[in-house]
Amino acid sequence: MKKQVGIEALAIAVPRRYVDIEDLARARGVDPAKYTAGLGAKEMAVADPGEDSVSLAATAAARLIQRNGVDPSRLGMLVVGTETGVDHSKPVASHVQGLLKLPRTMRTFDTQHACYGGTAGLMAATEWIASGAAAGRSAIVICSDIARYGLNTAGEPTQGGGAVALLVSEQPDLLAVDLGLNGACSMDVYDFWRPLGRREAVVDGHYSISCYLDALSGAYRGWRERALAHEVVRWGEKLPGEQLERILYHVPFCKMARKAHTQLRLCDLEDAPGTRDSTPAAREEAAKSSASYEAQVASSLGLNARIGNVYTASLYLALAGLLNGESAALAGKRIGLLSYGSGCAAEFYSGVVGEGAARRMAQTDVEAVLARRERVSVEEYERIMRLSSDAPEQLAPAPGEFRLAEIREHRRIYAAG
Ligand code: CAA
C-alpha cells in the first residue's frame, strides 16, 4: 500500500482577549453590517505584546504534545510558518524548541512567504516523511501570526492573531494528503507587505483580493490537471470542484472564502468541455451559487469569524473549524485546501479525512480554548494596540501557556504558566 502521510493531530492557541466586531464598527462610525455581512466577521482577537508569535506558537505546540501524548523523541523536524517573527536571524522554531525542551536531534527552522509560509512548512514536512528520509520520525509544523494593520485603517476589522500546531506523520488521523497532486501559482506583486522595522502591514486591499483570486485560479487548475490525470475527479455532471466534499480557503476575512469559491467554480465552468453555461454571464451566475457555498464552504468558517485573520494559520483554523464540527461525517471523504500568501504564492492541495479525526478533535477542545477569552471594550483594545512591542504587560501566563515577560539585552525572555 502507498505510504499515507499527513496531519495526525492539531492544537490551537489564541490571545486571551477579543473585541466584538459590532462594537468596533460603532466606534468607527461604520454600519455594523459592513463588518458582519460585508466582511463576515463576528469577533476579533486582540494580542498584547506578551502574546507574540513565539508565545502563541509555544502554547499551541505544548497543547498538541500534551493532549496527544506525543513522544518528543519521535520528532525529527520543527517548522514554524510565520510572517510576524521576532528576529531577523533567530527563528521562532528555536524559541519553541527551547521553551518546550524538545530534543536537539531535530531540524528547526522558520518558513516565510506571507500567509503561505505555514503551507510551505507543511509541504516540506509531508514530503520529507513521504520520501523516507524521516525514517519513521514525525514533524511539528506551527503556523503562528499576529495580523495587524493599525487603528482606523481599512484593514482594521480584518486583524487577529493566534497559532495552530500540526503533528505531521505517517498516521494521518486528521487528513491524509494526496501526495503529488498539489498545484502551485506564484507571481511577483506588491499586494500586501511589511517593510523591515514596521509593526503594521502595508496593503493595497482591493488589489490584494484580485491577486488572491488570480493565484487561486492558477493553483486550482494545476491541482485539477493532476487530479483528472489520476482519476481523483472527472468531468461529468458534477464539476471537478463539486466532487470535493468540502473546500477550505485561506481566510483573511470570511467573505473572502465566498469570493474564492466563486472563482474556483468559475475556473471549472470556463474550462468544462461542451456547451454547458456557454455565455460568460451564465457562467458568472452559476459560479455564485449560494447552495454550493453553503454545502462546501460555510461550515468551515466558525473559528475564523470569531478570531479574525491569523495569516499563516487562517487556512488551518478553517480546517480545525471544519473538523471540530463534522469530522465523523467527513471520515473517508476528500476535501480541497487553498493556501494563499501575498507577494504572492498560492497552493491548492487535497486530502482525505481520517477515520480517527473525531477522536483527535475531541482532544483539541477548541471550544474550551475560545471560552476562556475575555471580551474587551474598544477603548481597552486601543490601549493594547498602543503598547510598545518591547514592553509587555506583566501578566501571569495561564496554566500551560507562555508569555513574553521581558526583553533584556536584546534577548527575549518568556514565562511559562
Ligand atoms: N452592509 C452590508 N455590506 C456592506 C455594507 C453594509 N452597510 N457596506 C459595505 N458592505 C460590503 C461591501 O459591498 C463589500 O462587499 P463585497 O466585497 O462583496 O462587494 C464589503 O462590505 C467590504 O466593503 P469595502 O470593499 O468597501 O471595504 P473596504 O474597502 O473598507 O475594505 C478590505 C475591505 C479591502 C478587505 C480591507 O478590509 C483590507 O484591506 N483588508 C486587508 C487586506 C486583505 O485582507 N486582503 C485579502 C486578500 S490578501 C490575503 O488574503 C493575504 C492576507 O491574509 C492579508
Describe the structure.
- The chain is of the alpha+beta class and 417 residues long.
- The chain has a single domain (6-416), classed as Thiolase/Chalcone synthase (Peroxisomal Thiolase, Chain A, domain 1, 3-Layer(aba) Sandwich), CATH 3.40.47.
- The chain has 14 helices and 17 strands.
- The strands form four sheets. Strands 1, 4, 5, 6, 7, 8, 9, 12, 13 and 14 form a ten-stranded mixed sheet that branches. The chain has a three-stranded mixed sheet with strand order 3-2-15. Strands 10-11 form a two-stranded antiparallel ribbon.
- Helix 1 (21-27) runs antiparallel to helix 2 (32-38) and helix 7 (254-271) packs across helix 8.
- The chain is globular and about 65 Å long.
- The mean pLDDT is 96.
- Acetoacetyl-coenzyme A (CAA) is lined by residues 31, 33-34, 37-39, 115, 154-155, 158, 192, 203, 205-206, 208-209, 212, 250, 252-253, 255-256, 309, 311, 340, 342.
Instruction: Quickly give the CATH architecture.
Output: 3-Layer(aba) Sandwich
Rounded radius of gyration (Å): 20 Å
CATH homology group: Thiolase/Chalcone synthase
Uncertain spans = none
Looking at CATH, which topology would you report?
Answer: Peroxisomal Thiolase, Chain A, domain 1
Helical residue percent?
25-40%
User: How many structural units, i.e. domains?
Assistant: 1
Q: Beta-strand percentage?
A: 15-25%
Bound molecules: acetoacetyl-coenzyme A
General shape: globular
